[in-house]
Specification:
Blueprint: E1 10-14, H1 17-24, E2 31-35, H2 41-47, E3 51-53, H3 67-74, E4 79-81, E5 95-96, H4 99-108, H5 110-128, H6 130-151, E6 158-162, H7 168-181, E7 185-191, H8 192-197, H9 199-207, E8 211-215
Parallel strand pairs: 1-2, 3-4, 4-5, 6-7, 7-8
Helix pairs in contact: 4-5, 5-6
Length: about 220
């Protein structure tokens, strides 16, 4: 619909090349496929005029977090998305459940797009900024320690961090440091597939001073 009104170039960033070939490539508009990887996502988002975040709303997908939307907005790009529970906090600065209308508004009204992005970035800092996240995790650790001491007197609390993606490192590093300061015994768990796919994850785990265990993929 929009391609009949203006030039459209659809970039699909995913890890399902076969699905792209079957469902997207036949469309009568220019399309490109890029294999998803954590290191290139930010530049793809920065270059885009609008990011589309669809959701099938099935039992698996409806519980997805707002991370793709937050990452897009943090890179300065407006978002049109399916309304999910995780996106309700951002509903005043994104377009929800109106894909054609939302895309048209952002692509033809740069002022609206810029205002939504600026409002979103302020909101993101309040909701997901480092200080906010640090306080939430600190409360989790303190609660775990308190509950363990109450329910299992004399035992030493243990924190296990499951590592599956390279971006997990950014969260795990300060979390593990804080946990040690709180007196928790720490251990890292991962699986063989993650090590094979993400060499940087394997390198970080091996170079860390924490105990770690690598499990079969099942």
């Amino acid at each position: 619909t929009l391609a009949a009104e203006m030039p459209i170039d659809l970039l699909v960033v995913s890890n399902h090349a076969d699905k792209f070939a079957k469902h997207i490539r036949p469309l009568a508009i220019p399309t490109r496929y890029v294999e998803w990887n954590g290191s290139d996502m930010e530049q793809h988002l920065r270059k885009a005029d609008v990011v589309i975040v669809p959701n099938s709303l099935d039992a698996f997908s409806i519980c997805k977090s707002s991370n793709r939307t937050v990452l897009s907005l943090s890179q300065g790009t407006p978002v049109v998305a399916t309304a999910t529970p995780a996106l309700m906090e951002l509903r005043t600065c994104i377009e929800l459940d109106d894909f054609v209308g939302g895309l048209r508004r952002y692509l033809t009204d740069p002022v609206r797009a810029r205002n939504h992005v600026e409002r979103a970035q302020d909101l993101i800092e309040k909701l997901y900024g480092r200080e906010t996240i640090a306080k939430l995790w600190t409360n989790v650790l303190k609660t775990a320690i308190s509950n363990t001491k109450q329910n299992e007197p004399g035992s030493q609390p243990e924190l296990i961090v499951a590592m599956h993606l390279p971006q997990d490192i950014d969260l795990a590093r300060p979390l593990l440091a804080a946990a040690e300061q709180q007196g928790l015994r720490c251990e890292i768990w991962s699986n063989i597939a993650a090590f094979r796919r993400w060499p940087q994850l394997a390198t970080w785990v091996r170079e860390s001073d924490y105990n770690w265990s690598i499990f079969p993929d099942d």
